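Researcher: Here's a chain I'd like modeled. Treat it as a single chain, no partners, no ligands.
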Amino acid sequence: MEISALTRRKSSLKQDYKIRATHDDKKSNRFTIFVITILIFIAIASINNKSFFNQPSDLPAGVDKQLNKNKPESLQALSPNIILEEFPDSHLPLPLPEKKFEEIEFTIQSGDTLEVLFQRENLNIGDLALINNIPSAKKYIKFLRPNDMVIIEHAQGNILSLSRHLDIENTLFIEKTDGTFKASLIKREVQVRKKFGYGKIETSLFESAIANGLNENLIMNLAEILAWDIDFVFDIRINDDFYVLYEEIWQDDKFIANGKIIAVEFNNNGRTIQAINYTNRDGEANYFTPDGKSMRKAFVRAPLDFTRVSSNFNPNRKHPILNTIRAHRGVDYAAPKGTIIKASGDGKVIFKGVKSGYGNVIILQHGEDITTLYAHMSRFAASIKKGQRVKQNQTIGFVGSSGLATAPHLHYEYRIKGTHQNPRTVVLPQAAPIKKIFKEDFESKSKVLMDELRKFKETQIYSSVVMN
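Model: Modeled as a single isolated chain. Structure tokens:
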């Protein structure tokens, strides 16, 4: 029984082996099917795309032939003429042109001459000699000023051209043509633009103008226009203000300088002074009030450079300039030693020398009745001599403390028929008004300018109200 039972029993080992064998066969069959499918797909794709692989070449016939050769050296032997023949508009890359000259830009320093510059840069001195012999150029290149600009183009030291900016509108240009140097003046285009400015006195005219973006030259021009009506040393008060329309000079979109003042309004201690620049048909330019009266008068109110005096402005005093004393015989202007003293009007020097307690003195005669006296000078202007005539605003001397003076100042007197008058308040003789033949033209232009200034003033007042 036991033997019979053992004989009928199946081996589990064989069962296990057969199961595994059947599984592996299935995997092998799947892989074979996959490979066959891929091969069929590739064959079909090749047949369908046969035209793609055999597309005709777009290259020229000659080039196509060359490319189809087996040897790579055939490509190296490819002639550029093949391309040029098939495409006549094409060309080989051109070499970059070599620079045939060099440019040197000089900014002239003190002591520089063209000879010094030529030697420093190893330029042809012989060319400089030829340039110096050009009659029309001599006066422009013999003397150079510091900060002048000179531009030279040369080829290995041989001069091709030389240019120098003479002013904002003119440039001297010297060029070598057919072995000869020739000079010409080239006009440089400038643009004139209008601009407005404003200032309110808090410390001094000078400081308020600078704080509002106006430069020193513009301030001096403004003071000169109004100098016959305002003593910028004594008359200025806190909260005085001014509005100005002026020109800016531009070139090549770069700011060059401020031009002339076109119109100005100055509000001083309750009074308003306005001035307009007018150029008549004869080319004569001057400043007038809006109704045509000349701003120019026979005398200016203050005969010295106000900017140096006004630096002592003190807003805490009723009279806002420090160290200033009103004398019953004239006016004393405290100012640093060396400050320029100017003639207050056209006149003749009738005295130059030392006069007791006045120290160094100059007296000018103006017409028959009026004289002006300038005392305590440190020195006289070198050109001033007794008997000569001087112009208004001409320098006649410099502030000092000669004579009976404890500190540098100018003592100034204004006399009519020998009687002292207050130079700050005396009524001054008027210059001639606008000529009748220009009156109508002046009035039309005056109205336009004053309207522009008024509109600017209104915007400033409105801005001030909004900010406060």
